[in-house]
Amino acid sequence: MIRVEKVIPGGQALGTLPDGKKIFFWNALPGEIVEEYDITKQKANFVEAVATKISNPSKYRVEPKDECYLSTSPWQIMGYDYELQLKQELVVEIFREHHIAIAKPEIFTDSKEYFYRNKMEYSLYWNNDTSKIDLAFHARGSHRKIPIQTSSIERSEIFKTATEIVNTLNNNHEEARNYQSLLLRCNQNGEVSGGLYENHKPHPVFKNLTDEILGKEYSYSPNGFFQINPPVYEMVLKEIKKHINTDKVLDLYSGVGTIGLSVAKDKHLTLVECDKSAFRELSKNCVEGVFEGVLDAPRKNCPQAILARSEEILNYIEPDATVILDPPRAGCDKKLIDRLNEVKPETIVYLSCNPATQARDVSLLLNNYSITEIKTFNFFPHTPHIENLAILTRK
DSSP letters of 56-92? Predict the structure, then answer.
């Protein structure tokens, strides 16, 4: 029997085996006793596992909504208020690990716990008992497919369309082995786009979707980058907008442009993106709809989109600018951090889907910057994923 000590960054629960080796559990909460578990990964100095039999259940434990919860949203085992509290505490712990003391951050949520994801990719499972295809997810920590009949993490329009597509495949006597996966995306109006990825064939180009973010319309590809939870994303943008106090704004890792174009439309705005597909959508969003009719205005009111890696345009960083950072999970390139320390732009707005790399990067900037605010956003309820916003101002 193993007593669960705490939940750690990354979302697993920590325990200690009799030989002193650490074990990281899914499906366990602090204070619980794990009596039985299935090992998913075994390394020289740690083990990962799924708890299968629990005693002394936590007062925060609740019955998961979905049978497939471990695959999609493993924190369905806890009450929502406790989840929010845990995420606040984890942000504090992560920053403390990088020698940064912060107060427990305010956490933002629209309180919509389910049916919030606007994108989902399903596996296809061949059911030998029925000789039909089922929708499926992969078991956590495994390549094994688990057939599903319900799922409540994605918008209902997505699951309905996925079910219809699978029914059509079955009516046509198709086989699951012919397909890699099924990807679907839904905009806020409930329109669904996407489709099947066939094995050994190029991925198809799906019909673009459009969504309004803070009243501005954006175009994006279903299989490209766009925010998964737009209502909570709008909360982030409103907070960011409060800190845009310079005439020049540089939006790095800009994707299709939803941050810069939403919060700095009246500024001298430069947006930088390295992914060619996202850049095509960014270019459209700079010209179509968002800034329609503005091209005849003075140059400073025209957004400039640049196809480049953020660490390749270091000369665009200026002292009298606000720099917006929204990097991938790996965080910022060290060359970019060094340039920020050298030039010292007035304000750095750092949005991150990985507080660990965010804290690492922020720690390297604190000789020249003070942390004005840190706020946390629950983009992905019932999962351990945390979106975190840090505002840094030049000393």
Answer: S--TTB---S-TTHHHH-GGGGB-HHHHHHHHHHHHH
Instruction: Spell out the SS3 assignment of 143-204.
Output: CCEEECCCCCCECHHHHHHHHHHHHHHHHCCCCHHHEEEEEEEECCCCCEEEEEEECCCCCC
Q: Is the dihedral of CA 85, 91, 93, 94 positive or negative?
A: positive
Name the CATH superfamily for 2-61. Nucleic acid-binding proteins (2.40.50.140)
Positions of CATH 2.40.50.140 in the chain: 2-61
Rounded Cα gap, residues 18 and 337, in angstroms: 43
Q: Which two tokens stand for residue 381?
A: 């309820």
Whole-prediction pTM: 0.92
Amino acid, single-letter form, for residue 70: L
CATH 3.40.50.150 maps onto the chain at: 84-113+229-394
* Strand pairing class (248-252; 268-273): parallel
> Is 291's pLDDT higher than 70?
no
Question: What integer is the mean pLDDT of 96-111?
Answer: 96
**Sequence-distant contacts of 145-151: CB under 8 A, at least 24 apart:** 146/68, 146/71, 148/66, 148/67, 148/68, 149/67, 150/66, 150/67, 151/66, 151/68, 151/72, 151/120
Q: Tell me which architecture the domain covering 84-113+229-394 has in CATH.
A: 3-Layer(aba) Sandwich (3.40)
Distance, in Å, from the CA atom of 270 to the CA atom of 313, rounded to the nearest integer, reads: 11
Residues with Cβ within 8 Å of 383's Cβ and at least 6 positions away in sequence, in order, are 11, 72, 73, 74, 75
327: DSSP letter: -
Contact 353, 380 (CB under 8 A): no
Q: Work out the pLDDT band at 304, boundaries 50, 70, 90.
A: confident
- Is 34:28 a contact under the CB 8 Å cutoff? yes
Per-residue confidence (pLDDT) for residue 300, from 0 to 100 = 52
Task: Residue 104: name the closest of 87, 120, 119 by CA.
Answer: 87
* Contact status, residue 138 vs residue 71, Cβ threshold 8 Å: yes
Q: Which residues pair with 3 in a beta bridge?
A: 33
